[in-house]
Design brief:
The protein is an alpha+beta fold. Helices cover 32% and strands 26% of the residues. Bound molecules: flavin-adenine dinucleotide.
């Protein structure tokens, strides 16, 4: 028995497990594979993911192993995010295998239980929980939990078992990936639009294993049955067709296939079963979004599910996970579909690329796309009012009675924070019923404005309620220089506290 079972120990499942443990939830992760493959698909973390790790106090582990690069691109058209108002205006190049290992180390430190090999093969839910059937070394077993989260990748068994719809667009191309040795290596790395040809495009660059190259081929308008095996011959043939050579490839360590099929679940939740990461959305890996989306799913869901499991909030809070992430992912998938069109060859795609190049030259064009690709502009609808509402909180320096601190440091424990520059008793009184769940931080006013990527500068409010995922859930209508709060502000604060963190007890 566990409070929550997570199917799948990839980046999404591990991040979610950490978030739940921080909130004191008993978590069991079931992973189909007996051991990690050590293989990577993703090669980096975007700026918002770096911020998420900073919000939890573990970013240094990732920065120590990866390299920060001022890299964000839209179909390989460079975006300049260096001037964005964040402490991390860059992407971190780090292999997925290392991201997973670092998250697993963290999960184990926090007391997450991890079982492998344990493949989820069946599930049955009732009014009080979910029974999960697993196939492992000891044969078939049944386990029970209050909730099950499917983080089991693009071919998610959990998604299929719940019958959750997975609408979207079908594949229009076939991509193959190989980590191989080359007898006649290319003189130059091809990692960008220079690999575009009439029939597809290719890339070659160093793989994560010394001496091996990663070769990627993309064949336009070729649809392959995804269960057909990738072989050295199929990769070599595609490479020769597109690049004119296979550089004498041999001794593959890894071969894989992917496509531009682009799908998003019609609901992230079916009763006590939820989905996150690739289990909920798949797309072409242009601009490297998938793993990053999965981390954001995990950080959006973790604190909500924890509050429901602990009986603090009604289970309707989980519907906001669907609402927020479905909306955000819909926009992201559209952006990725547009990028896929720009990868095509021919005059039409070339013309479109030129138009985008011109638009990106404008500060606003660069800022808009940079905000989307870095995921720093992720925001959720939280009603009308102050422009900061629903946005990710800026990592301000704060002067509190206990000393100088950053906002992200306040979020290390994944607890909500009421940041109060007014020092007024109304806010303290309003918060009393939630004192066990929400931290009050009284700070000295120091900023007249807050800066956000894309949005720009907005007037700083006299107080703000920050959710554990770092998004702003309420702000005072007055500024720090004018801390007189109208009564409607405290009413709105109480409504926000109730909505996000459940009613007060008694
Ligand atoms: C070529 C390529 C390059 C990419 N590059 C990037 C990039 O640069 N940046 C980026 O953000 N994304 C990138 N992606 C996407 C990224 O790899 C995925 O989005 C990411 O791995 C999703 O993580 P996940 O944890 O949701 O799923 P997965 O990584 O697929 O993990 C799912 C886990 O569940 C396990 N599992 C499956 N079924 C079961 C079951 N029934 N029971 C128990 N366990 C199960 C699996 O063994 C696996 O460990 C790339 C993808 C490709 C193909």
């Amino acid at each position: 028995m566990a409070d929550v079972i997570i199917a799948g120990g990839g980046p999404t499942g591990l991040m979610l497990a950490c978030e739940l443990r921080l909130a004191g939830v008993d978590v069991l992760v079931l992973e189909r594979l007996a051991r990690r493959t050590g293989e990577s698909r993703a090669g980096g973390l975007h700026a918002r993911s770096v911020e998420l790790l900073d919000q939890r106090g573990i970013v240094d582990r990732f920065l120590a192993e990866g390299s920060a690069q001022p890299l964000a691109h839209f179909a390989f058209m460079h975006l300049d995010i260096e001037g964005f108002p964040t402490r991390h205006p860059y992407a971190v190049a780090i292999h997925q295998s290392r991201i997973e290992q670092l998250l697993e180390d963290r999960a184990i430190e926090l007391g997450v239980r991890l079982r492998r090999p344990a493949e989820v093969t069946g599930l049955r839910q009732d009014a009080t929980g979910v029974e999960v059937e697993i196939a492992g070394e000891a044969g078939t077993e049944r386990l029970r939990a209050d909730y099950l989260v499917g983080c089991d990748g693009g071919r998610s068994t959990v998604r299929k078992l719940t019958g959750i719809g997975f609408p979207g667009t079908d594949a229009t191309l076939t991509a193959q990936l190989g980590d191989v040795e080359l007898t006649d290596p290319p003189a130059e790395v091809v990692f960008g639009p220079e690999g575009r040809r009439d029939n597809g495009f290719y890339m070659n660059f160093n793989s994560e294993w010394p001496g091996l190259y990663r070769i990627i081929t993309v064949e336009f308008d070729k649809i392959t049955n995804r269960d057909e095996p990738v072989t050295l011959e199929t990769l070599s043939e595609a490479c020769t067709d597109i690049a004119g050579t296979d550089w004498g490839m041999h001794s593959p360590r890894r071969l894989d296939r992917f496509s531009d099929a682009c799908r998003l679940v019609d609901r992230f939740r079916a009763g006590r079963v939820l989905l996150a990461g690739d289990a909920a959305h798949v797309h072409f890996p242009s601009s490297g979004q998938g793993l990053n989306l999965g981390l954001q799913d995990a950080v959006n869901l973790g604190w909500k599910l924890a509050a429901v499991v602990r009986g603090q909030a009604p289970d309707t809070l989980l519907d906001s996970y669907h609402d927020e992430r479905h909306l955000h992912t819909t926009h992201m998938l559209n952006n990725i579909r547009a990028q896929t069109s720009l990868w095509r060859a021919g005059q039409h795609a070339d013309a479109l690329r030129e138009v985008f190049h011109d638009l990106i030259e404008f500060e606003d064009g660069n800022r808009y796309l940079g905000g989307v690709i870095s995921q720093l502009d992720t925001h959720y609808p939280m009603g009308d009012g102050h422009p900061a509402l629903g946005r990710r909180m800026t990592d301000l320096d704060i002067k509190s009675p206990t000393g100088q601190i950053r906002v992200f440091e306040l979020l290390h424990g994944a607890r909500p924070v009421l940041l109060d520059y007014t020092g007024r008793s109304e806010l303290r009184t309003a918060l009393e019923g939630w004192a066990d769940r929400v931290d009050l931080v009284e700070a000295e006013p120091r900023d007249d404005h807050w800066s956000f990527p894309v949005l720009g500068e907005v007037p700083a409010p006299a107080a703000a309620l920050i959710r554990p995922d770092g998004h702003v859930a309420w702000v005072a209508s007055t500024g720090p220089a004018d801390p007189e709060l109208p009564e409607t502000d405290t009413e709105a604060l109480v409504a926000a506290l109730t909505r996000w963190f459940g009613p007060t007890r008694g």
